[in-house]
Amino acid sequence: MSVPSLLRRRALSLLTAVVTAAGLATVPSTASADVPTLVVVRDLLLRDNIHVTSSHDEDSPASWLNEILLSGTKGGLTARSYLKFDMSYLPEGVIRAATLRLTGLGAPACGPAVGEGVQVRRVTEPWSGDFLHWGNKPDSTDEDAQIATKGVTTQCAVYPDQVEWPITDIVNAWAGGADNHGLVLQSPDESTDDGLWAFSSWGNPAGAIPVLTVTMDVPSAPYTRASSIASHEDGADTWVAGLTPRIQSQVVDAAGGSLTAEFEVEHDPAAPGQGSGQIWTATSAPASSFGRPSVLVPAGLLEDGWRIRWRVRAHNVTAGTVSGWSAWNSGTVAADVPQISARQVVPSWESEGSTVSMSLTPELRATVTHPLLDSTRVVFQMAYDPDAPLQGTGLIWEKTVLDVPSGGQAVVTVPDGLVDGGLQVRWRVGAYGGPFQSGWSDWQKLTLDM
């Protein structure tokens, strides 16, 4: 069976800075002299790890549930540990260094050099942790193999401790086209009785999973995607919500760095009678790669009914690079939003600028009209009157009415037992439809009396 999804999620949570951009190549290439590069450090995703010993056979195969990885020879027992990392998430660039790092849990002795140590080799055949035993273990090559001799035991001053292997050449071989069947940890000479090393696996409760860190020079190539503006789609028409809409876009660069989004808004050439050329441009605050910076169009620039269009491009401030402009998007500015009118309290009458109801459970009513949509969502709020602070403060009650037809009346009833007689409150209404909202109406005072 494969590694459970729970362990996979746990492994993912412990890795840092994993690249998730799709379609990025792993083949190293020398960057053009005129393309700035940034240093990128990635921890590769661990896909599988398991140890197999000479005692494992078809009837008793190795188990990926072990919390440790064993390597070496002792008392006639030989052990190897297999690990597989995912290279597909690396961006295109030049690999400068790669280091395999494991947490040592035990060794024949302490110190920086213990016996022959443990050798890391490149595996040359496919394998699976689902059914692995000594008889079907994959072959490997000693080409570019590396040995670490650091020893750790429970009696050492530092426990647990990290053991590292520089495997830059192995990772470059994978990036250059060699099949990535993973790595094997084994004794450099399995004919000797040099002892066993134990390392933490991804099943260890301590969470000290094996890590392969790759350092690269990655050419900066910023781009934007998923650009959007507050709007409503009505068939083939796009209505931009209000005179001060917010525009945002995702900015991405495999090289990392600090990125900004530059936005431009101009008159749509399809409506030449409304004006021409640029209306406004702005650059967002910096964000990291895959961030979603945004800007707000200032008041006083757009007019109701204007046809406008907008686009965006990404800047990598760290590398000094810039993307091309995105395609234009266009829409019609709709300053009109849901309109609230005919607010009423039933039953009630007006007295000295305040509404008085002889019921503790009156109806609150409002008529809502939307210029673009057939229906809206209407929200009623009731709060304590700040002019009568001794009675209470803050919100008392809120009620939402769904699917109110445009031009129709929304009605709610104050719940029985909510308030006492003589209470001074205030109430207001807000209406929402698509990305458009009316904003809250003014507060209206109300005295609830018997």
Automatic annotation (TrEMBL):
Which residue numbers delimit the Carbohydrate-binding module family domain? 70-215
Coarse class of the protein's main subcellular location: secreted
Secretion signal, residue range per the UniProt entry? 1-33
Compartment(s) where it occurs, according to its Swiss-Prot or TrEMBL record: Secreted
UniProt keywords, alphabetically: Secreted, Signal
Q: Name one GO cellular component term.
A: extracellular region
Pfam families the record matches:
CBM96 (PF24517)
Top-rank lineage group of the source organism? Bacteria
NCBIfam families the record matches: DNRLRE_dom (NF033679)
Annotated protein name in UniProt: Carbohydrate-binding module family 96 domain-containing protein
The organism of origin for this protein: Acrocarpospora pleiomorpha
